[in-house]
Amino acid sequence: MSSRLLTREELAIDPVDAAQLLLGAYLEAGDVRVRIVEVEAYRGGDDPASHCYRGKTPRNEVMFGPAGFLYVYFVYGMHFCANVVSLVDGVPGAVLLRAGEVVSGEDIAFSRRPASRSAAELAKGPARLCKVLGLDRSSNGLDLTSASSPVRLYAGEPATSVRSGPRVGVAVAMDVPWRFWIDSPAVSTYKRGGKRRNSA
DNA sequence: TACAAGATCGCCT
DNA sequence: GGCGATCTTGTAT
């Protein structure tokens, strides 16, 4: 298993490229380690689906900062979603971590997600991924490239057979295939775009 | 008035 | 029954 931390410069690239780099990488928080198998790229000003599309705010400030930082945001009043900031300081961009496989600390993961019926379901979805890793708003802004950080990002084996398609749950820009995943039982099968309201 | 936190309802399996 | 880059209300500026 790889134990090399990803570097900031490796992540200071376009979110679309960073997304593919993160596939197969490992995210470790405390005693739980997850292998990232599904991500989505989010850009800034040219991406209406991005939190940054509307400009910089204290909330999404992290996305405008240097690459390699963790951006955790609150959604639906009960869920958290984790993003890995990419691109350089001043340019918004991030990769949403949608799903992963728990490869270490599975017992802890189950204790956090008792409803999970199988290991593959533990981190099958962005909100679950956060809960399994114990990520919350206090985790926002952590440096994933620092060995002393409570949450770290490790390089994995190069992802092969990367697939791509429309992003999930995004009501706009569905024609942009910025969702990437690799073959894994933990990848969510939910792939329908357009929800809530009649978007047709 | 703007931003951020809290909730709910539709679509999913 | 559970999850989700939305929607609404409260607080801060």
CATH class: Alpha Beta
Q: Separation of termini?
A: 46 Å
Going by helix content, strand content and strand pairing, the class is alpha+beta
Assign the CATH superfamily: Methylpurine-DNA glycosylase (MPG)
String of helices and strands: HHEEHEEEHHEEE
Please, could you describe this protein's structure?
- This protein has a single domain (about 10-180), classed as 3-methyladenine DNA Glycosylase, Chain A (Roll).
- It is of the alpha+beta class and about 200 residues long.
- Strands 1, 2, 3, 4, 5, 6, 7 and 8 form an 8-stranded antiparallel sheet that branches.
- Strand 1 (about 25-30) and strand 2 form a beta hairpin.
- The protein contains 5 helices and 8 strands, in the order H-H-E-E-H-E-E-E-H-H-E-E-E.
- Helices cover about 15% and strands about 25% of the residues.
- The radius of gyration is 15 Å and the shape is globular.
- The structure holds a DNA duplex (13 and 13 nucleotides).
Brief summary of the model shown:
The protein is an alpha+beta fold and 200 residues long. The protein contains five helices and eight strands, in the order H-H-E-E-H-E-E-E-H-H-E-E-E. The N and C termini lie far apart (46 Å).
Q: What is the element layout, followed by pairings?
A:
Layout: H1 8-11, H2 15-22, E1 26-29, E2 32-43, H3 61-64, E3 70-75, E4 79-85, E5 93-104, H4 106-112, H5 126-133, E6 151-154, E7 163-165, E8 179-181
Antiparallel strand pairs: 1-2, 1-6, 2-5, 2-8, 3-4, 4-5, 7-8
This protein binds a DNA duplex (13 and 13 nucleotides) through strand 3 and helix 5.
